[in-house]
Amino acid sequence: MNNFFKIGERGSTVGTEVRAGITTFLAMAYIIAVNPALLSAAGIPVGAAVTSTCFAAGIMTILMGLFANRPLACASGMGINAVVAFSLTAAAGGDWMVAMAVIFLEGLIILALVLCGLREAIMEAVPVSLRHAIAVGLGIFIALLGLINGGIVVNDDSTLITFGSVYNPVFLVGIISVVVTFALYVFKIKGYILWGIIIAAVAGVPLGVTPMPTGIVQLPDFTTFMAPFQTAADGSGMAIVKVFVNPTLLVFVFSIMLSDFFDTMGTAVAVGKQGDFLDEDGNVEDIRKILIVDSLAASVGGLFGASSCTTFVESASGAADGGRTGLTSVVTGVIFLLAAFFSPLVSMIAAPATCGALVMVGFLMMNVVSDIDFSNPLDGIPAFMTIIGIPLTYSIATGIGLGFITYTLMAVCTGNASKVKPLTWLVDIAFLISFLIA
């Protein structure tokens, strides 16, 4: 095991990897409840959505660990699952199986782009300043997700967001999670992120935030599996065939593909920063293997009826907790598979308990901001647009797109157009198209 995962070579231990795997799972566990709740709006049975969510995440996370040997976990991506539930299914005439066929196809297209080297080439075409900016923007985004989970940042009709109520039990659990996690970090307690989640979850019991389980075992429901190849709701043939005869659905294939394409780039940089697998130029080591699994995961998510499965930014919590190898991912994946049978117990880890873990990861990712030269407009302005674009648009892909386009504009304005690589121009065009058709 040590030789296969290179545990000692990367300065880790089996115990650390196991703990990091548990930490990553707990930081992601909310997806087991949230994804089925969203997909049920598309008409997918909740029990079947729980099964597909757990199995897609478990299988692809284990594959990520075995094939890429990096501490990255996969699960149904937030944002795309909402698109599937509220937009894509409607465009497919209310047929969620056709919607899953769109997801299946966009995953195959991304996989083809990886195998031909295009996706990796585009990542390498990203300027160094933007790579650093993506990490910083992701850090703020991750922290924002945590603060929202903890009820510390809430919606407001007048100001869009505002400070939550200190009398709200969710807020109290979120604050406990943050304070405990940071305190344990200061005192250098091993596994401080995991302990922060556990202590906050326990504190949430008397406050009514941590739900008591309604049972222990829930048998899997596999009715959504092979959704793209099931007969469409109108009985006209296989669901996947209907995608090719509907121009609107083909547009969805392109737009979702672009989101998947760049979300993973940002996530890989973020986790690579915490997991110590970025080189001095900000390139992600073993990126090709990571992208192959991630692209396949998107397709498998559609095949299983779980929406697009993607590399989760919450993986950074496990990397921050010491995870350095694929063993972390294998542990996370195995727990996801077990969760398909014990989902009532998993639901006890409420989102507010993970607030501190995500805020801590955001803090840890801030140190790279000093590597950005803000005195140089060509580096500083695109970096700034990326940093604010990711959290303020609530979209990794959109933030990256704003950074790409701004970089090209600044290069032209500063007389450095020759520095813009041909692939960067192509990415700019793709983003402009996606913004216009969104």
Automatic annotation (TrEMBL):
Pfam family, one: Xan_ur_permease
GO cellular component terms listed in the entry, alphabetical order: plasma membrane
GO function term, MF aspect, one: purine nucleobase transmembrane transporter activity
Membrane topology label: Multi-pass membrane protein
Spans through the membrane: 20-38, 44-65, 72-92, 98-118, 130-154, 166-187, 194-219, 239-258, 349-369, 381-408
Keyword Amino-acid biosynthesis attached: no
Subcellular location: Cell membrane
Transport recorded as keyword: yes
UniProt KW keywords: Cell membrane, Membrane, Transmembrane, Transmembrane helix, Transport
Protein family per UniProt: Belongs to the nucleobase:cation symporter-2 (NCS2) (TC 2.A.40) family. Azg-like subfamily.
PANTHER family: XANTHINE/URACIL PERMEASE C887.17-RELATED, XANTHINE_URACIL PERMEASE C887.17-RELATED
Protein name from the UniProt record: Permease
